[in-house]
Amino acid sequence: MSTKYVITFSNQTESGVEQPEKIHNQTVIEYVTEILANAAKSNGYDLDNCTAYPVCSMYKGSTESSFRLEYIADIPAAYMKGLALWIKRQYKQESVLLEAYSNGEYKAQLLFDFGKTVEL
Asked: Are 67 and 79 in contact (CB under 8 A)?
């Protein structure tokens, strides 16, 4: 059964904007979706179908640009969590939001690290 996963993250930090994608001359969305798709493929999963878009959000009272990646896939939640934590580290974020929709159920988690998550 497929699950819809949504990863929401920002590239803004207190010290500025993180831009690892610039090395590859790509946008944030191009860079992240390509790396996630390739990582998944190397582990026998398919993340080639993604809806990705920028969003305007608020964090600690300030507006910031964020990005949302939406996948519908047959992938274990723990694997998606690992991919979301890769994004968190790559963009030096405090946390990343991972949402999962499956069988009429919804689960949202702020991921700080593998052992540290907050269920919303």
From this structure: no
